[in-house]
């Protein structure tokens, strides 16, 4: 890794094409532009050596002009508002702080001044800027990290806090990042955020930010995204559309309590502060110990929300999720067909159905474990991870072999962070459970959370996974669930440091997942949390996919999967065909094909035509999955604004694409009235368009006419998929000829 110190640099230096920074003599301003392919943020010191963020937006053609930005704003703005790159409290900065501390002597003031910065080349595409700031009075230091992904226009930012004071310093607030957006937007700033609940995940709201502070946060401990999400979009001037407008996407890579503050000041500047929620979480930092915050990721686009989302999706596939450029397994799950009521005979039949259907893997869900406290419902057994001898007298290994005999793989469900009071584990280790010692226990889904701040508990949870693989080396898939939140937070392990529990729990979880990935680097893991309660890139860096919602009604899923697609690639979205909803099997399969396809239905109840349709659709999916999983996604018609939702995926060389169309309004006469313009194609190529996933006995909505068009025609005129009450879902395949 190559490192450059700023002290010996000329005025402007281009660093390996992905990041540049400028410096002057120590007494003068230091300007640090951080560039990606299209964007730049600019940091600059003032006369007192405070470091400010003076620009975030489109990259300038002349890098030397970055040094002139702050002067322009100083001439126009005499409000005295500071734009600190990491706002401290208790000194000259009067806005919402990114960091608040109580020093070892009890003083609560903090003043951070610029010391130096370095830039490292991680790869041809990735660079790392590290800015060091210190307090002139106290031996207290903050390092800001900016990891930039040049081609993807994505930045990850985090902070590392350290001190050498004579005693313990209390961190009262410790954000990951502090962004400042200049108030030169006549239409103001518009926040798109998400709220929800079980089976109602990612409900969007968009509104103009008013003066003062708007906060979105979570205090649930686990399932942190159940009610609010840390992901958001900020549009400038007016709400951005798919293809137009200035928009900033942001999300915190953290699976616990989060807090994002949006402060619109008197000069109409917007400050965004994102990090771990400091509520009930002051952290006691000993001398010489580093406290590292989770990364906050963001990307900016002046070409609308679609461009911004494709940047994030590309970044995630390339750098964040496990095997993002690889393959995934289609599967059949038993949950909707058996719930807790199964035995080896039933499962043997389902394994044969797995082969008959044509998917890759059978997934055994909840209910396979516990003997003294058998898991026959959700009120017992969690923590006792031995096979239930009545249901599975020959164990998991016999099921793995049976699956192999049927030519399919075998996967299994676990919820290793949790415990039922009705369990051997609870009786043996009550000190491993998060609960107040002198208060009544309060349950969420009849369970409590294990204390992952405790290294012994971390060993136990890792052992749950490791023992399954040790006993069953051919086990091919894990569904990892997390159904409870933290009530009555108390850790017997932490003793007097109870305010550490929410932070140390998540770091303990990550320690376990790191160990799992170190030993089993490529095994597919599904991230589930009572549905979508834990969908974030802090967790997803250890998983191959996530479960968006327990609500599998396909009409509802059109909306849920649509909103997740703004931040997460299709390859990570586990979409299952179930019996939820009133739509026909074709509609259900077509909706599930928008991501990573799975089934959770009773195959034996399908009619002959329905089974034939599913088998045919799986073959179609096999030919299109590369475009869906690794291609560019384009949202063509929103379900929120139209009778029909349309979305398409285009593979890398623009030789193949697929367009999904779903009727979302069943009122009389609803449907596609005019052609839908496609996106992302090569205007000079000719594409043959045909309908696929046609139910037996039905003809194509396109008829028998020649359906060959240029990409130019399809993107400027479009095609009518003729989605209506007779054809509630239509899937079109495009192939270049």
Structural account:
The protein is of the alpha+beta class. It has 3 domains: about 30-320, Beta-galactosidase, Chain A, domain 5 (Distorted Sandwich), CATH 2.70.98.60; about 330-630, Aldolase class I (TIM Barrel, Alpha-Beta Barrel), CATH 3.20.20; about 635-735, Golgi alpha-mannosidase II (Immunoglobulin-like, Sandwich), CATH 2.60.40. The chain has 13 helices and 38 strands. The strands form 7 sheets. Strands 1, 8, 9, 10, 11, 13, 14, 16, 17, 21 and 22 form an 11-stranded antiparallel sheet that branches. An 8-stranded parallel sheet has the order 30-29-28-25-24-23-32-31. Helix 7 packs parallel to helix 8, helix 10 (about 555-565) packs parallel to helix 11 and helix 11 runs parallel beside helix 12. The two termini are about 45 Å apart. Mean pLDDT is about 95; it is low at about 1-25.
CATH topology of the largest domain: TIM Barrel
In CATH, the architecture of the largest domain is Alpha-Beta Barrel
Global outline: globular
- Poorly predicted regions are 1-26
Number of domains: 3
Give a quick precis of the structure.
Helices cover 20% and strands 29% of the residues. The chain is built from 13 helices and 38 strands. α10 (554-564) runs parallel beside α11.
Descriptive terms for the model:
737 residues, alpha+beta, Beta-galactosidase, Chain A, domain 5, TIM Barrel, Immunoglobulin-like, 3 domains, eleven-stranded antiparallel β-sheet, eight-stranded parallel β-sheet, 13 helices, globular, disordered N terminus
